[in-house]
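> example.struct
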């Protein structure tokens, strides 16, 4: 029997979301911030059935090693969250600003290392219809002094860099993801 070809899914709505998946910290926590945005296709149309995951260090730059990422207990920070986009392509996480995870160039010069001087970022993974595999990118903090020395950001043109830096807004940090076309987000290869 011949059947038409199609990509697999998306089956995100039934299998992957869970209670508290987008709340890495409780919304009322004193240092909680909102990371949000929309996922767009190549024509600039919002994708209503994408899935966005973030992985991040805590505010001190420590990469969490806690087990039980699917269990939200209100105080254990696992550094991982997942959010399905709504009908307008929008996603939103409640989390904390990540700290630098490694040493980087200090004010004294590029050959002298200092603790906590590398650019902090959110690692972002996108699943969406039409994709046979996930996409990897980063969302850097706007205006962070270490951004200027980050090797990835330094390797990109100004227009490309702009696709990897979140923008502050009235409700937190906004990071829109464009899968292709004008203003396409820079995506990374992951081995």
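> example.seq
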């Amino acid at each position: 029997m011949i059947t038409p070809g199609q990509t697999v899914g998306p089956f995100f709505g039934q299998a992957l979301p869970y209670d508290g998946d987008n709340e890495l910290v409780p919304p009322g926590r004193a240092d909680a911030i909102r990371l949000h945005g929309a996922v767009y296709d190549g024509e600039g149309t919002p994708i209503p059935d994408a899935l966005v995951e973030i992985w991040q260090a805590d505010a001190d730059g420590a990469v969490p090693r806690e087990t039980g990422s699917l269990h939200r207990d209100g105080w254990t920070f696992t550094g991982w969250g997942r959010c399905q986009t709504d009908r307008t392509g929008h996603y939103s996480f409640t989390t904390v600003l990540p700290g630098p995870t490694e040493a980087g160039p200090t004010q004294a010069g590029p050959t002298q290392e200092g603790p906590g001087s590398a650019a902090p970022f959110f690692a972002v993974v996108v699943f969406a219809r039409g994709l046979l595999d996930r996409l990897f990118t980063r969302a850097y903090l706007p205006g962070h002094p270490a951004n200027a020395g980050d090797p990835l950001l330094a390797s990109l043109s100004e227009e490309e860099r702009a696709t990897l830096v979140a923008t502050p807004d009235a409700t937190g940090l906004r990071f829109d993801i464009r899968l292709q076309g004008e203003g396409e987000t820079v995506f990374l290869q992951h081995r």
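> remarks
Residues 158-162 form the longest helix (5 residues).
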